[in-house]
Amino acid sequence: MPILDVPSPRLDGAPRALPADVPDQGFPCRACGTPLRFSVVDLGLSPPCQNVVRPGQLGEGEAFYPLHAFVCHECSLVQIDAVVPPEAIFEGEYAYFSSVSDSWVAHAGRYVDAVAERFGLGADSLLVEVASNDGYLLQHAVAQGIPCLGVEPAANVAHAARERGVPTRVAFFGEAEARAMVAEGIRADVIAANNVLAHTPHLNSFVAGLAVLLKNEGVATLEFPHLVRLMEGNQFDTVYHEHFSYFSFTAVERVFARHGLTLFDVEELTTHGGSLRIYARHASDISKPVTDRAVELAAREQAWGVDDLATYARFAEQVRETKRGLLDFLIGARRAGKTVVGYGAPGKGNTLLNFCGVRTDLLDYTVDRNPYKQGTWTPGTRIPVYDPARIAETRPDYVLILPWNLRDEIASQMAHVRDWGGRFVVPIPAVEVF
């Protein structure tokens, strides 16, 4: 049975307030094809957030692109215009390596343990991860003797995965790639796709590819930030060019249903500020009934207002107030003679810094554990990135944690900051000093 027993909505009633109704952008919803008209939040112009500026590029210009989120009034999918070709982001030298976060690697290990037990994965199974990055997840499958295969578009991180012993093919995943894999005799018992669904501008092709690659009684699991938590937690900095779509359970269920896939279970996770892990099967596979928690979440989203444009209208002003609050803190700290540095150079941090106009007049530098980013500058704002040891050398008054979703992990790693009276700051959902 379908999780939702209501039709796909038409959101053209008379809600209390509407997001900005803008002229037809000439850009159709990537899920259902409806022209996008309703603006959720406009973050101005920004460079791709995972770019890095190297010393030899300091005298060069950067390409800035619009960063504007819309909501589809037919299917409730929140999305940005695909103004940056995905090849420009993911092919070649990609700067994000999942293994730099100890907590994320541990999360992946728990996932492999759980799906291996629940779905009986063993030596005769195949676990495929789409967007497998540097092997952070599949290394746990290798350790357990579970055959696995990663599919990763960025050649440099795929190389890192292979060095870990994780078989990896360099490719963008979609329906064509899935059919090529099936033609080679590859079919998956379980497909994992963590924080990648939002990264594809070709949403229907991606989901169709899952259906093609999945065995008749196979299971696909996908994790992504939950739109409800994003909006309730004011997590606008997770809107960036790599994230083409922002999913509620309701919107993603509709996309999967179009391709013969049923969402039969869901877990609500704390990762990335609040995420969902969905479990999908072929609609014809009746061996896996829809769980109560999937039905309950769908109902809860309806009560929240997932299909009401008024829900999205309130978000833009919330975002602007967060910008004012961060600038008030940084300017006030400077005027008081205090020093402020950053921790991390994540994609979300670059969205935040560019939207708020924060440069070295307000933030001296930032640090990152990823050696690939050390000795570079942040895109757009040109803030230098150093090794974390720099913080102990300069003893700043405040450390602004840009990957705020890892605040506890970072505060623990950097506990020595308190030795000289330094304090930590997070910018989301509002400025907090601790």
- C-alpha-based Rg, rounded: 22 Å
What is the general shape?
globular
Number of helices: 14
Determine the structural class based on helices, strands and strand pairing.
alpha/beta
Can you put this structure into words, describing what you see?
This protein has 14 helices and 19 strands. It is an alpha/beta fold and 434 residues long.
Provide a brief overview of the structure:
The chain has 434 residues and is of the alpha/beta class. 31% of the residues lie in helices and 21% in strands.
Topology:
Elements: E1 20-21, E2 38-46, E3 65-71, E4 78-80, H1 86-90, H2 102-118, E5 127-130, H3 138-144, E6 148-152, H4 155-163, E7 168-170, H5 175-183, E8 188-194, H6 203-213, E9 214-225, H7 227-232, E10 245-246, H8 249-258, E11 261-269, E12 275-282, H9 292-304, H10 309-313, H11 315-335, E13 340-343, H12 347-356, E14 366-367, E15 376-377, E16 384-386, H13 389-394, E17 398-401, H14 407-413, E18 423-426, E19 432-433
Helix pairs in contact: 5-6
